[in-house]
């Protein structure tokens, strides 16, 4: 390995040939500040914060001088170290130039920056903050920070579409940070260790709030209002809380024991619940007002399916995905037959197909509405999930239904 000898701040250093001045300094434990350099990348534009003064730059034939041209200043991130260089990282000229560059950058920099991952997250979770806690092994602090914005990280950590990871700055280097997996990890770690998060509450306000619906929206509303010191009661039509988290996702996606633990974590804050209480059947809005509630939140969800634009959609054994998954989660004994077809190619279609196979269906055909498979379901690793027993075909020209043995069977033809 070829080496060179140079001087940094009066210290003689032997370094590997071919490194930049910045790399030599870092390996020698000498700090040179920089805003544009990340290991493994090439700066798109020099920030000129990493300037150094090279006294013999002219003699060495260096051309890329910065500043007004009178000072012998060069960007450490792009200047290759040479034998005999005399480098200063903190001279008066260097400090003055850095201050000038910072002033220029600040003039066009309005307010505090938020990382793209943070801005992309629908919940505006402090991504950098909880990842920093995880890096230090502070898992409880990480989960507390997550729950400042997201009260259901145990469930979301399993089904989140990970919008944040599509905008992770680490993509510019190699691949995004596993932001969502870290969220799930700290939640599962705290559950496994029976950690009491001791979620803080403000002083009681004396206000009573009725929340209609115990799904993700209702639970979130109850969580944040309780933290504000209000007294909350949830009215849920089903025998159990959870809504779409309980009835819209298969067991293998969100295990019921995990969901129950998460819901109990929220209820332990002092939230009251009324189960099997359906709005319009068991109570009205006026009833809640008469009971003394100061405000009412309606979070009943979007439980009504859109009509399917296919022939004979109302026939027996033709289900919408929402209805089918709910029946599976309710533990109903369904006669699914030997073959099944799933029309669609998004995440829900994949969950239905996998649930059918897990229920013993021998063959599942996924009919994708288009000539080519272009969807990217986030619920599976590959674009075409290698689910045993499933096959794929593009959208047919027509669908015909044939009634045999008291069952309606959907068949596709071109």
Automatic annotation (TrEMBL):
One Pfam family this sequence matches: Pyr_redox_2
Domain (2Fe-2S ferredoxin-type): residue spans on this chain: 2-93
MF term (GO), any: oxidoreductase activity
InterPro entries noted in UniProt: 2Fe-2S_ferredoxin-like_sf, 2Fe-2S_ferredoxin-type, DPD_II, FAD/NAD-bd_sf, FAD/NAD-binding_dom, Helical_ferredxn
Superkingdom to which the source organism belongs: Bacteria
SUPFAM superfamilies assigned to the protein according to its UniProt record, in alphabetical order: 2Fe-2S ferredoxin-like, alpha-helical ferredoxin, Nucleotide-binding domain
Protein name: 2Fe-2S ferredoxin-type domain-containing protein
Organism: Desulfolithobacter dissulfuricans
């Amino acid at each position: 390995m070829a080496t060179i000898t140079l001087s940094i701040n009066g210290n003689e250093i032997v370094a590997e040939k071919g490194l930049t001045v910045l790399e030599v300094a870092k390996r020698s434990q000498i700090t040179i500040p920089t805003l544009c350099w990340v290991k493994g990348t090439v700066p798109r534009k020099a920030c000129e914060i990493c300037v150094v003064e090279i006294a013999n730059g002219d003699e060495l034939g260096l051309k890329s001088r910065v500043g007004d041209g009178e000072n012998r200043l060069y960007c450490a991130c792009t200047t290759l170290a040479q034998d005999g260089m005399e480098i200063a990282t903190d001279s008066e000229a260097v400090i003055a130039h850095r201050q000038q560059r910072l002033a220029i950058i600040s003039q066009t920099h309005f307010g505090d920056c938020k990382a793209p991952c943070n801005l992309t997250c629908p919940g505006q979770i402090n991504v950098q903050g909880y990842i920093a806690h995880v890096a230090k092994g502070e898992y409880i602090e990480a989960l507390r920070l997550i729950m400042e914005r997201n009260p259901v990280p145990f469930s979301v950590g399993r089904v989140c579409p990970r919008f944040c990871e599509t905008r992770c700055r680490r993509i510019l280097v190699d691949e995004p940070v596993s932001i969502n997996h870290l969220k799930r990890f700290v939640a599962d770690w705290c559950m496994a260790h029976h950690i009491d998060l001791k979620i803080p509450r403000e002083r009681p306000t004396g206000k009573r709030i009725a929340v209609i619906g115990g799904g993700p929206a209702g639970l979130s509303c109850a969580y944040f209002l309780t933290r504000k010191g209000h007294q909350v009661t949830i009215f849920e039509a089903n025998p159990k809380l959870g809504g779409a988290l309980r009835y819209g996702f298969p067991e293998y996606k969100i295990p019921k024991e995990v969901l129950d633990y998460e819901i109990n974590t929220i209820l332990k804050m002092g939230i009251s619940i009324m189960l099997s209480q359906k709005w319009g059947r068991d109570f009205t809005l006026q009833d809640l007002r008469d009971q003394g509630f100061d405000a009412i939140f309606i979070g009943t969800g979007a439980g009504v399916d859109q009509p399917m634009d296919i022939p004979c959609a109302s026939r027996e054994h033709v289900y919408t995905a929402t209805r089918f998954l709910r029946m599976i989660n309710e533990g109903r004994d369904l006669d699914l037959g030997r073959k099944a077809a799933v029309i669609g190619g998004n995440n829900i279609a994949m969950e239905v197909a996998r649930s059918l196979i897990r229920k013993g269906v021998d063959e599942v055909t996924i009919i994708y509405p288009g000539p080519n498979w272009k969807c990217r379901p986030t619920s599976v690793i590959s674009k075409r999930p290698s689910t045993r027993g499933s096959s794929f075909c593009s959208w047919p020209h027509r669908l015909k239904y044939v009634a045999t043995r008291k069952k309606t069977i959907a068949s596709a033809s071109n």
